[in-house]
């Protein structure tokens, strides 16, 4: 059975690993990057606490010893279901089973001005763009003679009070406190403001009341200017226009206010559910299809426990990958379809970190919410465990230890123009 | 005394550190990057053995506690000697003393086809470009149906048999042997060729006969196709044309065959010596100038021991920085100019590494040349000592240990498009 998996995120990678060296399977794993990205730590790359390579793991390395998994560095351009074929920017690939695990990207809700001017943070490279941007801005700010223009450079607006928004604002607040004044003695960082805007009346609205409340307290303790019940109407690169008509001048806006599924071309419009996700049945099968599946952030599945879809988080993607691997193996053995597993999301708890010694954790069973130093240790331990590769794990740990002891983020490096544009390379890119 | 230092390489950085917190000095250190680059290890970044950040150290971090050294991330555009002023892309800066330490860049000897198609390796970013290029090529090679075109992709030509050329060819040969066949099972790496072309009759011609000879043996042992007495006439991105009329089809050419000094605008043409260097007197003072100095790879100084100039290596730059710092301090104290030191290069020996357990070392006193495992250990120890920052030193060491034990280079990551081009960023870049 030839299984093509599009996307090597938490779901796609797990599925490929579960089918690795299993008899009867030939697997092609497609991704537009040649590495698996550890999304939960993008914000630490953006704020110079971790190296991009620490949270990126080469896919070919994962499957070096595999007899049946092949990696393709390519972008999925189109699904041709009638021909059982996908088209990438490099080639056409025939499949018996196609698994769409292309995840979700930033949702600017159709606002092209926002998309042009705000910084998303849904890939390692985008995280690095934020890092470069901030450093570049501070390098230049001391030359600015106009007071209003200088203040605009010193204002950073983070939009979206989910885990990403909370984590990045907390990390920026710590940079402001511990690192930037030492690095840029020319600048007065008491003037630097980090605004966190959230449409709901609290941060981390998906977590329990106590954790939401704690995260708000932690953020204010760190000096983040938290503005709840606040929506962004527009951003022209100069001023963030709010729904109440107010404006915040800000040269940098980080957008973490919404995601939308990456649906490839060739998927019927009638299958699209809210959040630009693909409707699936309880087996993750795309509705109306025989051999196309969708898992993870891209999949929309209504279940008894989650009638409006499971949360778009890594554990859901990984659980779906686990179920799908079992079902595909049954299918390969031509077992009775009655034996196929149906998916239901099991919540193992959630957590977010705000800063040094500050994190919040919700556990489902026993139903317990806690915060502070202990939560922060749990958060770190769990994330270390989840990172792929002993070496990456070790390097992340050493970086964290270093940052913790020195109150420093050591990776304030601007690497630009990573790609030499010779003619034949343009060919390679296209 | 206001000292402007242009360039934060080995010379410029050392000078700034020697003047750090010295009374009477106000120092501005300019560089086009916000970090010091450890040039001797570029080749390991190119071949995925080290992270770019491991060999880059943020300049602002070095001078965080400085009271008198200011960092400017800017490119030197012009020297206006008559006004005691430099023009950068960001601002104008007045100086009492100007020190040009802008080093050297790749010399393509005016061949624009070469400059377009060949990969230089004189910065961290250029080293990363080579890494990205090679990985990208192998990702794509399995799709190539044309035999000749495939062979062209599998041929890498390194031009220049100095330390850089030798080190990068050796590292490529080890990638070919240990890493690539495991990563790309689709490809037949027995077909991969690494050509090293050198105009002279041996590699490492600046070292002693024995070391030259050893390096050649090591390279051949690793399977590098060494071609001495060979010059490149042209390269069109497809075929390397040699002086004897032969052609080597190669998609990738790494050019390490020459350097030329980075002379800023505003320096009199009559002061330019061979290798595009600036003629200085024995005090590193630019000839005919009162208060402009040049040190390191950019400086050309005739001395009794080196009547045709000192070698363009890090120790020479650092020794000149040391001498100049002493003289500037004497000057600041208005000491008698008779006390000023005159420069003479002291050779502390030289070394190069070819691969695992393979390096060559020349010591001047006692006059001794040796190679093999012991030389390799010395090479590693010395380079570790010279790397700036305890954390970088530790991470380089851990990476080396990892690579040595596992026969693996773990950093096979392609990070592209590092820079988000919003309008205001274009402004920041210009």
Largest interface: A-B, 64 and 64 residues
The proportion of residues forming helix of chain A, as a percent range, comes to 25-40%
Largest sheet of chain A: 5 strands, parallel
The value of Rg of chain A in angstroms is 22 Å
Mean pLDDT of chain A: 93
CATH class of one domain in chain A: Alpha Beta
Q: CATH topology of one domain in chain A, anyone?
A: FAD/NAD(P)-binding domain
Number of helices of chain A: 12
Question: What this model shows, in words?
Answer:
2 copies of one chain form a homodimer. Helix content of chain A is 33%, strand content 23%. By secondary structure, the first copy, chain A, is an alpha/beta fold. Among the domains of chain A are: 2-32 and 74-106 and 259-339, FAD/NAD(P)-binding domain, CATH 3.50.50; 112-257, FAD/NAD(P)-binding domain. A 5-stranded parallel β-sheet of chain A has the order 5-2-1-9-21, with helices on one face. In chain A, strand 7 (85-88) and strand 8 (92-94) form a beta hairpin. In chain A, helix 1 (10-19) runs parallel beside helix 9. The model of chain A is unreliable at 417-430 (pLDDT under 50).
């Amino acid at each position: 059975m030839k299984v093509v998996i599009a996307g090597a995120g938490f779901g796609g990678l797990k599925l490929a690993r579960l089918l690795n060296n299993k008899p009867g399977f030939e697997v092609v794993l497609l991704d537009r990057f040649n590495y698996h990205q550890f999304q939960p730590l993008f914000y630490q790359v953006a704020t110079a606490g971790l190296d991009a390579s620490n949270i990126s793991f080469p896919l070919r390395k994962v499957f070096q010893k595999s007899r049946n998994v092949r990696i393709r560095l390519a972008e999925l351009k189109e699904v041709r279901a009638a021909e059982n074929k996908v088209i990438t920017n490099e080639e056409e690939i025939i499949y018996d089973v196609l698994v769409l695990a292309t995840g979700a990207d930033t949702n600017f809700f159709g606002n092209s001005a926002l998309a042009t001017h705000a910084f998303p943070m849904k890939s390692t490279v985008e995280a690095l763009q934020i890092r470069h941007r901030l450093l570049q801005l501070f390098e230049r700010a001391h030359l600015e003679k106009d007071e209003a223009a200088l203040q605009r450079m010193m204002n950073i607006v983070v939009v979206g009070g989910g885990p990403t928004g909370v984590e990045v604002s907390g990390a920026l607040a710590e940079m402001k406190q511990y690192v930037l004044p030492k690095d840029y003695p020319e600048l007065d960082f008491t003037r630097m403001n980090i605004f966190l805007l959230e449409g709901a009346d609290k941060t981390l609205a998906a977590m329990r009341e106590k954790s939401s409340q704690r995260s708000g307290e932690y953020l204010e303790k760190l000096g983040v200017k938290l503005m709840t019940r606040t929506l962004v109407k527009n951003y022209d690169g100069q001023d963030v226009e709010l729904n109440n008509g107010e404006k915040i001048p800000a040269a940098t806006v980080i957008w973490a206010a919404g995601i939308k599924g990456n649906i490839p071309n060739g998927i019927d419009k009638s299958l699209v559910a809210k959040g630009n996700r693909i409707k699936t049945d309880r087996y993750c099968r795309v509705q109306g299809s025989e051999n196309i599946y969708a898992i993870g952030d891209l999949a929309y599945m209504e279940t008894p426990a989650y009638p409006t879809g499971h949360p778009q988080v890594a554990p859901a993607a990984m659980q779906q990958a686990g179920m799908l691997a079992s079902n595909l193996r049954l299918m390969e053995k031509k077992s009775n379809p009655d034996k196929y597993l149906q998916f239901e999301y099991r919540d193992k708890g959630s957590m977010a970190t705000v800063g040094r010694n500050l994190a919040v954790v919700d556990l489902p069973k026993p139903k317990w919410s806690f915060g502070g130093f202990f939560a922060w240790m749990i958060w770190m331990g769990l994330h270390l465990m989840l990172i792929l590769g002993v070496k990456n794990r070790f390097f992340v740990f050493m970086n964290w230890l270093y940052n913790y002891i020195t109150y420093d983020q050591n990776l304030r490096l601007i690497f630009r123009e990573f790609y030499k544009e010779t003619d034949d390379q343009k060919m390679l890119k296209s």
